Amino acid sequence: MFNNLEEFFKTGASLVVDKTGQPTPSELRIATVCLLIKAGSLDGYFHSDEFDSLVSTLNREFELSNEEAGYNLEVGGLLVDDEVKIESFIKAINANFEESQKVAIIAMMWRVMLADGLVSSHEAAFASRTAKLLGLNQKHIELARDMIEDGQV
Fold first, then answer.
1. Which neighbouring-strand residues pair with 17?
2. Per residue in 128-149, pLDDT tens?
3. Of the candidates 54, 40, 35, which has an alpha carbon nearest to the alpha carbon of residue 118?
4. Pairwise CA distance, residues 55 & 29, whole Å
5. What sign does the CA torsion over 119, 121, 125, 126 have?
């Protein structure tokens, strides 16, 4: 666990590579996109501000071109309502990303959810449940929220 935020931010929670240092496979990018879309749409509406936040987050965190981001969004959008897929995506993320990367994904979820100015109880519950399934605790969730406030995500 990180002793302080400065130590956490120094670890470089880039999602460009997985925990082995290999380029992040398309499947893991799509898995992350599904979680972000799900997180932003659980209030019954995926607001344009949430979409814009998701696209800019994808481009920055995965260093994707607009074409690559569009492909990931298209595939993720088709899979987002499949609960079995969501569970398998969470397991894949858990197996292939380090703790700091998982915290970054939770921060990305919160960034997307906050983009429309309102986080529903369903959205917040999904983010908390996802964090727990990724082996993260409340301290990690607080770190994720601090990453947003500090402009890290």
1. 23
2. 999 999 999 999 999 999 998 8
3. 40
4. 12
5. negative
